[in-house]
Amino acid sequence: MLNRRRFLTSTAAGFAALHFAPAFAQDTPQIQIFVPAAPGGGWDQTARTIDQVLRSEKLISGSQITNVGGAGGTVGLPQFVNQWKGKGNSLMVAGMVMVGAIIANKAANNLTEVTPIARLTGEFEALVVPAASPFKSANDFVAALKEDPTKVPVAGGSAGGSDHILFGLIAKTAGVPAANLSYVPFAGGGEALSALLGNQVAAGISGYGEFSEQIKAGALRLLAISSDKRQEGIDAPTLKEAGIDVELFNWRGVFAPPGVSDDDKAAMIKLVETMAKSDAWATECKNRNWTPILLTGDDYTKFVTDDTARIGAILKDLGLA
């Protein structure tokens, strides 16, 4: 029999071995998903879809989703960098919005401090108005901007994100100074949607998927999308068709914390790649009007670096950085 001291020592050693074992030692690991945004928005939808598909494909045995919203992800990012460091079974959902918010907010932390795993989806933006709006087209919206931009408040995600960038590009094309715009940022898509449905703003800009149900229900009117061509199943012109020479592509992906091992990074990439190639993921992307644009590892790292430089130039040009 073990005496008390030997029992406690062996138990502690066993716990330590379990706790510090490689995160992917099991065939179906448990994972943690960090969402640096409030529930209801695009990142939250992405996280919960990832969770759903990983479970349905039996690629994980369980998961936990944590939401920390604010300022385009720049409130949550320091927590992920500092408190989640080295946790190889963890993923953070982020994307173009965070890149812009980091620059616009002059944030202390940036995406060079985390570990790029995979770019997953791309989504074109949608310009919408409440059903009772006098704006029947994108041209009506632009005409109102030209007349008095302060009377055309537009709801979207956090300052400096893709929604804000698109609004600025539309205004620039129309000859309206970005400094004169009335942009109303929200931490989550649910809050922006509530402002739209409550007629508290004149229009809204976000990924089409965040507005699709309300568009189909007739509560919102879709004026245009920011794609390069019309999209199947979406009854709306592109901004370019409306004579507004603007297109924008919003991407979302996942990152591991800093300090993860090479083995855990490789295992997480493999896990996400397997999920992204599944029929279940393809179905979810189609249902949500997401375009699959899988890119992993070093190629994804280079993409993030290049996109950060591109967005920085856009924000500076628009007076947002």
TrEMBL record:
Presence of the UniProt keyword Signal in the record: yes
Superkingdom of the source species: Bacteria
Sections of the chain in a coiled coil: none
PROSITE patterns tied to this protein: TAT (PS51318)
One Pfam family from the record: TctC
Keywords carried by this UniProt record: Signal
Keyword Signal: yes
InterPro entries: BUG, Bug_dom1, TAT_signal
Cleavable signal peptide: 1-25
SUPFAM superfamilies: Periplasmic binding protein-like II (SSF53850)
UniProt name for this protein: C4-dicarboxylate ABC transporter substrate-binding protein
